# Entry
Amino acid sequence: MKPVEPEKRSRRRDLMNRVEPDNEFTQWRLRSRSCAVADVIAVAAAISLYAVAGIDSVVSWPSNQVLLSDPALVRIAIVLLAPTLVWLIVSAGMVSGRAQSWRLSQLPAGPRACIVAAGVVCAAVFVGGFAVGAAKGSVRILPGPRYQVSVIGNSQTGWTTVPLSQFRLWQASFVREDGLLMFWGLLVATAFIALLDLRRSYRVDEITGP
# Structure
């Protein structure tokens, strides 16, 4: 009986070669240690966004208290996602030939199970947040203090002064709507995990040869 693993590697190499031969940018991207470090940092940034958005949403469920306000979450998302998305776009262009044939099933069972579980948690938090009460809008505190909210529905309402209890309720609703940031964090993390897996398989192919 022929060994299975060498056959799998051979079929994978044949598929890669049929899609597009590796150019010098692809080879550099997959060999570079600094690129691998940047990928790991990007994974950590995306997971951080996933965790912060999820925890903030869940904390708000029982009491309408939030750890971070909606504007703070958006600022964190911009800081974490903007550079990682630029790096992801550049990287995807460099390894487009190999990335076209990559599938989640190529990951080892452990990481694959973690990604699937994270997706389930993401869906549960998002659905749970909307079940408790989610909305899109803004809040602000004026001197006094005066607590104001502006809700975006079919059309955005003007600023309305509300009691502190209502202010907290609306603020929590806006944070729950930001649960969608969990999805973006998971998506970006998975993309960079895929790049790291492409690097791993490329190194294996280099060592084992054709």
User: Anything to note?
Assistant: Strands lie at 136-142, 146-152, 160-162. The first strand starts at residue 136 and ends at 142. The helical segments are 4-19, 24-31, 33-63, 70-94, 96-99, 109-132, 164-177, 180-208.
